[in-house]
């Protein structure tokens, strides 16, 4: 949540900060601010609203300096106003603080600071850090930060500047920070895209790390001040990958990238002839009798698909739960449990804590993750990277696709290792998986047809999505996409459960999207379609190419390529992504930055 950029070097700091913040806007975007050192003073400009509001202000009142820090905010404590935006300054303007996360004991700290004469100008928890650091400062900024952090607890990515120093002091616990290394200049940011225009050499800070960043170099230590060695990693993502490549929205670009993403996820890992997959994991599935999968949002629906895949192919019982519930319900876990965390960002705090809960209880742990070097990857026994590349659109598309493919690989890996999946069944399944990039490419051709359907129903107040078995999560993901970016209320149900409640909602104003692809449950789903039709509902069926029968029951049909029924979610989610996208465009919504949402949620 929230985006941080810090710069010390030879360029105009505001250029670097604004460019970096623009690339981090997906992390939160209700206000933004910068502090730049100008003639020995820290000058601050911060504004509620989108980053452009700050950019316009900086155009009117330029701040010229080669050292500065900047922030985009997604509000937790205090409304998105100018005073609540970061950076937060001390009364004298000596110290600027930027903070992502939550300081849990900020209230008692604030009371103490006020009693000692500090004047607060915001309602944020973050401002206490500025005043605390000021109290501790005696010429050594890193030392003051260290002392302040020994009194504050909670989650933080903290970036601090002092008017008398040409250094940025940073610290992290839970919330991510990555340092970018240049020649005669150095950077810090909450995520890699902000650094890509300048460098690919980065250091991912770990929990409990602090660093002092100057023009000449970077020193990393722990919170007690002991030096620590951190690896310099070269990130492969290039700048272009993080740009829109001519598409009107990142989301559309990312939808169209999906065939390539699937190739990346599957590439080199499928060995159809040998009926195996090569995941280079140290974990041994034979040690585990059950699987728990934790995730949030879209990743949770990928986890749900994963349950069907693992149970069908590997015959291992799987429990799937949203991480925010799992972490607090004292789950029954033992050393024979494999806990899998699925996450695009690898930073979602609930997912991380759910995983930690399983780990504390002795489970083996596997991360199915997109972001290299992210927090979850550092805490698990093993990581299976999904290789989706940077996902900028807040509504996840290509990462979901890559997660589905990765869970197919995990299911085969487990089934083959345990001997519960027969080689010939694995061969057939892997053969079908190999075809997926081409099939998804083919599915994208339906966009114009889907745009017409989106237009036809764009005035609907509500949508219902139905699917059975492994297509139930697809229905939920379709409803989530529509809600997220079009703001149309959408509900999803397992198709068979419709008669136990949602059927009461059906009338001629309700579009009902039914996942009716080929499967052993096809006939049952057709019966559900008829139940909807009998009550005047308008059916949009997602069906397998060649199914002419379905046209008799549905007003609109979107055809998807034929595949193994356990892989139907991969081809079927594409039209649902496009339906949400086209509906949102039709309604003039902000597709890439829908209201109230954040790409990476690092608060509970
Ligand atoms: C947020 C995003 C969702 C995402 C979820 C989990 O809510 O808006 O798109 O699915 O977090 O994120 P993760 O990075 O853990 O996959």
Low-confidence blocks of residues: none
CATH class of the largest domain: Alpha Beta
Small molecules in complex: 6-O-phosphono-alpha-D-glucopyranose
- What is the count of helical runs? 18
- State Rg: 25 Å
Strand composition percent = 15-25%
Give me the side-by-side strand order of the main sheet: 3-2-4-1-10-9-11-14
Description:
The protein is an alpha/beta fold. α4 (127-136) crosses α5 and α12 (398-418) runs antiparallel to α13. The strands form five sheets. The chain has an eight-stranded antiparallel β-sheet, with helices on one face. The model has no long low-confidence stretch (mean pLDDT 93). Helix content is 34%, strand content 23%. It contains 18 helices and 26 strands. The N and C termini lie close together (11 Å). It folds into three domains: 3-237, 4-Layer Sandwich (Glutamine Phosphoribosylpyrophosphate, subunit 1, domain 1); 244-434, Rossmann fold; 445-604, 3-Layer(aba) Sandwich (Rossmann fold). The radius of gyration is 25 Å and the shape is globular. Bound molecules: 6-O-phosphono-alpha-D-glucopyranose.
Give a quick set of tags describing it.
604 residues, 8-stranded antiparallel beta sheet, 6-stranded antiparallel beta sheet, single chain, Rossmann fold, binds 6-O-phosphono-alpha-D-glucopyranose, Glutamine Phosphoribosylpyrophosphate, subunit 1, domain 1, 18 helices, 3 domains, alpha/beta, 34% helix
């Amino acid at each position: 949540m929230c985006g941080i950029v810090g710069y010390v070097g030879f360029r105009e700091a505001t250029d670097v900060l604004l460019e970096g913040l623009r690339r981090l806007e997906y992390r939160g975007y209700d206000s933004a601010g910068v502090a730049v050192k100008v003639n020995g003073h820290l000058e601050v400009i911060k504004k509620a609203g989108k980053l452009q509001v700050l950019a316009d202000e900086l155009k009117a009142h330029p701040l010229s300096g080669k050292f500065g820090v900047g922030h985009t905010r997604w509000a937790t404590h205090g409304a998105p106003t100018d005073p609540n935006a970061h950076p937060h300054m001390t009364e004298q303007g000596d110290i600027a603080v930027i903070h992502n996360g939550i300081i849990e004991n900020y209230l008692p700290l604030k009371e103490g600071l006020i009693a000692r004469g500090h004047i607060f100008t915001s309602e944020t928890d973050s401002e206490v850090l500025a005043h605390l650091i000021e109290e501790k400062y005696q010429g050594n900024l890193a030392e003051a930060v260290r002392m302040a952090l020994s009194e504050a607890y909670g989650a933080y990515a903290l970036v601090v500047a002092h008017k008398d120093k040409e250094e940025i002091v940073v610290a992290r616990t839970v919330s991510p920070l990555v340092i970018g290394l240049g020649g005669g200049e150095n950077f810090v940011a909450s995520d890699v895209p902000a650094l890509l225009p300048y460098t690919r050499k980065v250091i991912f800070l770990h929990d409990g790390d602090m660093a002092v960043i100057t023009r000449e170099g970077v020193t990393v230590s722990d919170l007690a001040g002991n030096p620590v060695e951190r690896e310099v990693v070269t990130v492969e993502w290039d700048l272009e990958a993080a740009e829109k490549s001519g598409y009107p929205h990142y989301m559309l670009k990312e939808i169209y990238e999906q065939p390539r993403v699937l190739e990346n996820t599957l590439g080199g890992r499928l060995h159809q002839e040998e009926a195996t997959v090569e995941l280079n994991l140290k974990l041994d599935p034979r040690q585990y009798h059950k699987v728990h999968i934790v995730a949030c949002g879209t990743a949770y629906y990928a986890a749900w698909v994963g349950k069907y895949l693992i149970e069908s192919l590997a015959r291992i019982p799987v429990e799937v739960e949203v991480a925010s519930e799992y972490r607090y319900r004292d789950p029954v876990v033992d050393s024979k449990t494999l806990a899998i965390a699925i996450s695009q960002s690898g930073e979602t705090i609930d997912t991380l804590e759910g995983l930690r809960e399983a780990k504390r209880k002795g489970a083996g742990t596997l991360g199915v993750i997109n972001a290299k070097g992210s927090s979850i990857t550092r805490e698990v026994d093993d990581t299976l990277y999904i290789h989706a590349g940077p996902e900028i659109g807040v509504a996840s598309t290509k990462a979901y696709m890559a997660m589905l493919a990765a869970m197919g690989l995990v299911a085969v890996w487990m089934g083959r290792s345990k001997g519960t999946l027969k080689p010939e069944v694995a061969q057939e399944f892997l053969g079908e998986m190999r075809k997926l990039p081409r099939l998804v490419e083919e599915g994208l051709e339906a966009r114009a047809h889907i745009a017409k359907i989106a237009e036809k129903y764009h005035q609907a107040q509500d949508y219902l999505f139905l699917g059975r078995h492994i297509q139930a999560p697809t229905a939920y993901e379709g409803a989530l996409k529509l809600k997220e970016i079009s703001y149309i209320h959408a509900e999803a149900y397992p198709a068979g459960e419709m008669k136990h409640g949602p059927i009461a909602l059906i009338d001629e104003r309700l579009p009902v999207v039914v996942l009716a692809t080929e499967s052993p449950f096809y006939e049952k789903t057709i019966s559900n379609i008829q139940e909807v039709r009998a009550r005047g509902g308008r059916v949009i069926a997602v069906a397998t190419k060649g199914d002419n029968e379905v046209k008799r029951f549905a007003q609109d049909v979107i055809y998807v390529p034929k595949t193994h029924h356990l892989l139907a979610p991969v081809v079927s989610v594409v039209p649902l992504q496009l339906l949400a996208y086209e509906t949102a465009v039709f309604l003039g919504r902000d597709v890439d930055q829908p209201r109230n949402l954040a790409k990476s949620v690092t608060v509970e």
